[in-house]
Amino acid sequence: MSYEYFMSMLIPMLEGAKATVLLFVIAIVLSIPLGFLLTLAVRSSIKPISYLAQTFIYVMRGTPLLLQLLFFVFGLPLLPVIGEYLVLDRFVAATLAFILNYSAYFAEIFRGGLISIDKGQYEASKVLGLSKWQTTVRVILPQMFRVTLPPIANESVSLVKDTALLYAVAVPELLHYAQTVVNRDFTIIPFFIAAGIYLLIAFGLTIVFKYLERKLQYE
Amino acid sequence: MSFIEVRNLQKSFGPLEVLKDISFDVQKNDVMAIIGPSGSGKSTMLRSLIQLEQVGGGSIIVDGDYLVKDGIYTNPTDSKMINSKMGMVFQQFNLFPHLTVKQNLELAPKLVKKEKVEDYGHRSIELLEKVGLASKADELPSRLSGGQKQRVAIARALMMNPDILLFDEPTSALDPQLTKEVLEVMRNLAEEHMTMIVVTHEMEFASNVANHVIFMDDGKIVEAGTPDEVIKSPKELRTKRFLNYELNK
Ligand SMILES: Nc1ncnc2c1ncn2[C@@H]1O[C@H](COP(=O)(O)OP(=O)(O)O)[C@@H](O)[C@H]1O
Ligand SMILES: [Mg+2]
Hints:
The complex is a heterodimer.
Chain A: H1 3-43, H2 47-62, H3 65-75, H4 90-115, H5 119-127, H6 132-162, H7 174-185, H8 189-215
Helix pairs in contact in A: 1-2, 1-4, 1-7, 1-8, 2-4, 3-4, 4-6, 5-6, 6-8, 7-8
Chain B: E1 4-13, E2 16-26, E3 31-35, H1 42-49, E4 57-62, E5 65-69, E6 72-73, H2 76-83, E7 86-89, H3 101-111, H4 117-130, H5 146-158, E8 164-168, H6 176-191, E9 195-199, H7 203-208, E10 212-217, E11 220-225, H8 227-232, H9 237-247
Parallel strand pairs in B: 3-9, 3-10, 7-8, 8-9
Antiparallel strand pairs in B: 1-2, 1-4, 4-5, 5-6, 10-11
Bound molecules: adenosine-5'-diphosphate and magnesium ion.
């Protein structure tokens, strides 16, 4: 196989990888803070807020991501009355679905992280006079992030792989271009290239998270 | 005027009455030891003073100000002001594991008192020297022994310049050797006339360092007085039994 031919497969796929990476970055950057807000909402003493957040998390985790994607991309515009205002760009609609779905998973991770923090940490903060906000930001969150880093890393790798679901809502991404070349040239090499690119991204993520884990190590 | 006055304190956890009509006084410069069997309400009593538990009835007066008057708490501003006069040392140390020893000491002065580094920077080193841990300033708590952790916790409490320090079984998680180094620090504080309330099973410390001893059982103060009165010649049968058990452990 010539270098030129290999590049003729790779270049469109890299184009697709851009969409994959873009979706990944937007989804991870927005779903982590949103997930944390959801955790706070679940723990809120205002019952309606707590129930609403719990229901949201339950629905997002209990139904397939693919169903949610289809709903956001093709279902929203069909809603009565408001539907006509919800005709979003397909990539935008799909990204929205990813953000909401992953925020529910992150919320669960953060909830577990908060539960794991000893109540003595809150008590020590209180007797030293720290406010609730100071306690949360300076004492609890740094510890919560440290304990939740490994599951967050896992979810991130899942997210990379889940971006392939864009294929189902006809947003061109890595897998889409791979499939196109497969059909065009009757070769399965693009599948291997695609696998290589996914692995590479996952590998990069693993390195970043391992570095963070080491840096935030305190046990 | 007593520094702390506790009057008819009551506290229940659901149906369980844990404090039943507790009254006592603490004077400035007192070292008060609280002894008694496990489950008698010692921790709950101490935690009520520093607002980690909410009482159901009675009064607590600190330095002339009511924290609780007949079961009714004062406003949040005053209760915060009252809390800032007290420090607490826990059995499980409760150091902040993600911060270095020095950062553990400096967090509250920085955030709560808005002190400048010129002020808290010197004080943290001085206090670490005082508890013999200046060389550990930049270590994380996980690198310290239990005794060292507890000495850091004491220094951290002292950083806020409290008028009184509360200790809840500060050496119960430590083996005898480490217990000694923590008790040594506490003995030094007593010699500097730090006001302290210490829940402890260390009868030697209670006898020799405290000037007041309270024996609690089943949510009540059974016997109170000087160490000579309560530990050397207890009057109540329950106190005798408890001491017999503790001293022959
Ligand atoms: N948060 C709580 N909820 C319910 N019961 C409690 C709680 N804290 C303490 N207790 C109960 O109150 C009693 C007194 O406990 P405590 O004050 O810890 O005693 P001590 O410190 O003397 O061992 C015990 O019976 C204990 O089980
Ligand atoms: Mg106790």
